[in-house]
Write the structure tokens for this entry.
Amino acid sequence: MNLPNRITVGRFVASLVFFLLLIIMDAQDGTGWLFPLIAMILFILVVSTDALDGYYARKYNLTTDFGRIADPMVDKIMVCGTFILLTASTWAGHLLPAWVVVLIVAREFMVSGLRGYIESKGVEFGANRAGKSKMVSQSVVIPSILLYQIVREAYPLEEWAATIAFYLSRVIIALALVLTLYSGFLYVTKAAQILRAEKED
């Protein structure tokens, strides 16, 4: 297994550790500020290494079918899995509504299915700028929610700080939802154009 694929596998393992931290936090109805801080740092590390595997794969010509499939899959597992755990938790469920998570996860499944179908016909169907912006916005949502929990636990008497962190997270969630739906619309439009052109040929 080459270096880029090892990085991808390492990110997947780190994702499972991150999920375990969230489960522990929920089981104990919050665990003070330390656990969410550790979780936030781990998430940022996992997300920040996302570009490393692709960089090394392109620079040293180490691109593999495994990496091409596994890399975006790990991204989706990390983000969608985290959203599901957060919306089901006792401490973040009020901040991240279930219907928002349903829309985000549904969009990811839909685009993945479209990409697989279009590429099976030999047509490239890679990520566009809106899709990348969507991924960035979703990745910012999770640290913002963890930051809210850190502030709430670390400064229980400073309600104004928790309120600011709460509404900041809500704004970021709203932005991520808009970008998620918008990028999904662009992918559907692009897929429809490709399929229409295929029928005309």
Notes: Residues 3-200 form a domain with the Four Helix Bundle (Hemerythrin (Met), subunit A) fold (CATH 1.20.120.1760). Residues 159-200 form the longest helix (42 residues).
